[in-house]
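Submission sheet (multi-component)
Chains listed below:
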Amino acid sequence: MLKVNSDYCKLPGSYLFSEIARIVSDFAAAHPEVDIIRMGIGDVTQPLCEPAIRAIHEAAERLSRAETFRGYGPEQGHRFLREAIAEGDYRSRGIDVSPDEIFISDGAKSDIGNIGDIISADARVAVTDPVYPVYVDTSVMAGRAGTLGPDGRWSRLVYIPVTEDNGFVPRLPEEKVDVIYLCYPNNPTGTTLTRAQLQPWVDYCRQHGSLLIFDAAYEAYVTSADVPRSIYELPGAREVAIEFRSFSKTAGFTGLRLGYTVMPHTLVGLECDGNPVSLHRLWLRRQTTKFNGASYVSQCAGAALYTPEGRKSVADGVNYYLENARLLRESISASGLKVWGGVDSPYLWVKTPDGLTSREFFTQLLHRHGIVTTPGAGFGPSGEGYVRLTAFNTRENTIRAAARMAENVK
Amino acid sequence: MLKVNSDYCKLPGSYLFSEIARIVSDFAAAHPEVDIIRMGIGDVTQPLCEPAIRAIHEAAERLSRAETFRGYGPEQGHRFLREAIAEGDYRSRGIDVSPDEIFISDGAKSDIGNIGDIISADARVAVTDPVYPVYVDTSVMAGRAGTLGPDGRWSRLVYIPVTEDNGFVPRLPEEKVDVIYLCYPNNPTGTTLTRAQLQPWVDYCRQHGSLLIFDAAYEAYVTSADVPRSIYELPGAREVAIEFRSFSKTAGFTGLRLGYTVMPHTLVGLECDGNPVSLHRLWLRRQTTKFNGASYVSQCAGAALYTPEGRKSVADGVNYYLENARLLRESISASGLKVWGGVDSPYLWVKTPDGLTSREFFTQLLHRHGIVTTPGAGFGPSGEGYVRLTAFNTRENTIRAAARMAENVK
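Outcome: structure written.
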């Protein structure tokens, strides 16, 4: 019989997030009278902005006529979008990124999952803890994680705690690692690092020849002047970092599927024969072989976000969720709970009261207030003792959830 | 410095298809007076059908209003599309496939490239020769191909010739292999296998516990009654085969990006501990971890193809290209050249005259007639001595190309 990838067998059978979904759905079925407000997952609620909608209609029109029909685009993405991104997200902000260094994807999750393809199987990987589970799970699938211990830690992964104890500022790994995943503004904690706090990570990678996999999916939420929106704002980052971005949380493209990856020409790895090789070249080969580009319609919608009207719409949408985050943060804080994030981020990270576990507090919030959160333990061992709330609901639901959270301590 | 995936280093630096593209573009620049007709690549030319266009506009409308907005869909695809496919492509034809067994993708190339993720790294792989290069290249990237020999063959791959010598009917491998890639109707040869000719492959896989990776991207072109459109028409196939399908060549979705993979619940592999494991479960885990679903807009357009009007449009589109194929086939045949395919397929496979190599004949056709083909050698060692033409051009260009081909021998 066919042998399967033995690394897949190591993944735990039950995925916390699907278990949570089941618990919520069972609760909803058992208590139809409860008005449940879902603040657990990171999906948006606001409709697409007018410029994106118009771009979809126009793309459909072009696809409907032979003279303007577009078939296969370049696997790397249409040039019109790559140029808009390079100018709009980088060059206009004084950051050196060329259109050729941008790879359009169907969303950051795909590329973050697939990037491991081009890296040596024995690379030593570091992740912050708590962490977006995709970094860990894809490391497991690629055989880089070792075995799962009873403490919830994988033997070959290096965990970098990010908790109240260190003020949510991770410390550099003490040993040498080959790959470091960082997500800032952070999912799940909603915290950020300043330029000064991020620079040592870039320097560490330059010193050790490590690769920095920088997930900037939430960069649009940055409002603080000392927090970078791109890793390439930092000197030396072009030699060590790949940056992943998404239109999902920026412009509500969760259903439309569009993101991009920046792979600077200056990134170099070592071939088995010891010769240097461009990571850009390997990724291009990976993408041309296993991917056929993102939808033309989605790419047209994405390009529309870089027009003056599109920029304003994106800013309005981000501000809508930032205001939700502010409302949540204030009411949670007023209720006496400790809360982080929600300033330069759509995520809030709340400490459980009375020594409750994250699962217990999750259950309490669901049963008492009908509010769905995500237990922090689902994001890693150091997520225990916290729950995550997202600001992606409607204003109305957010106000109601904030009021219920404020009730919690009374 | 970071070590890269050493299997990527094995891939030959220059990819024949990009080299061909460069040759054609150089020729075009040097001979602006030549009216070049491109019959080399498999991209479509006809606009999207009216039902698909309408569905895109309607999807955009829904995404523009909060009440009807859709964010993340299930990674496996929206249920409305999976049900339409299960009913339209399988159950209505008496084939047992359930919506739960269907995974919507952003195109067959992605899933065919990624399917290797769930298979053991040391699996022994067989491919027909000539072959769609993605099967070989992704096997190389996964470390299953061994080393490239001077004869253009990878040491660990089993090559199954499909040539004039065996009437384009491949023989079963003599040794035991774990994975077999088959594409029927075939790319690049345009030939097909009857149910009776395919059944031994299913039986072989059942006998040896092998996995059949069946690429049915061109099934819509089947018109002959004894040629199956799905591998699951054959008894036993549900125990051994994964089927990949695409809307690219069926409905012109090359730019829209939509396909699907059928993963029957009855497919079982062996875990490292020797226990059986459902491949469906592993693939679901792969997709939920590394993919976030195809674009909602594309999925709506796909569902529209299963309405009565959509079905008619798809049939009309396929018939348009089949008529192109017939015209090409007749003129090539009349010119005295040997040709295969083009009956149940949009591809034609032409034997080079006078013992020319495929590159020489490619060059001759480009220089004498301004017709771009693809040299068969690009598809594998047994592709030498043939060129491929596609029927995806416009009727007008096809008629002109057919006339020029007929000129060839005069």
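Remark: The radius of gyration of chain A is 21 Å.
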